Amino acid sequence: MNGTTSGAQPVTITNNGTGPLLVSSVQTASEFAATNTYGGSIAPGGNCTVQVTFTPTAPGAQTGTLTIADNAANSPQTIALAGNQPASFSLAAGGLIANIGIRDVRTDSDL
Question: Hey, which end of the chain has fewer CB within 10 Å, N or C?
């Protein structure tokens, strides 16, 4: 039904780097929305969860994206989203953004 919001699906952001992962924004496009449960910085080896929902405004298949901007070298990271009327959707990456992180850069003066 148009305007009905789906149940939330979790996306886990994991920092596999050696330095803090500083998440500056989490945004969705199209008829998707995201709420997050992180404080902006993810410690090495840590993770946080973003909940994504779908609220269709028209019948049929819809696509969108979840984009995460951070201080990792490959920023931003994007996950494809797909939804269909009635309100159901899937995460193209299986609900996990695996192994994004930033490496701690050290110089000789840091030793």
Answer: C
CB 88 within 8 Å of CB 53: no
Q: For residue range 17-60, list pLDDT tens digits in order.
A: 889 999 988 999 888 999 876 668 899 999 888 888 888 888 88
Q: 101: exposed, middle or buried (C-beta count within 10 Å: 0-12, 13-18, 19+)?
A: buried
CA pair distance 80, 6, nearest whole angstrom: 17
N residues, the chain: 111
CATH superfamily of 9-103: Immunoglobulins (2.60.40.10)
What pTM was estimated for this model as a whole?
0.77
Amino acid at 101: G
CA distances from 6 to 12, 19, 33 (A): 18, 35, 10
Spell out the residues 6+ positions from residue 39 whose beta carbon is closer than 8 angstroms to its own: none
| CA nearest to 64, candidates 36, 31, 39 | 31
Domain locations in the chain? Answer: 9-103
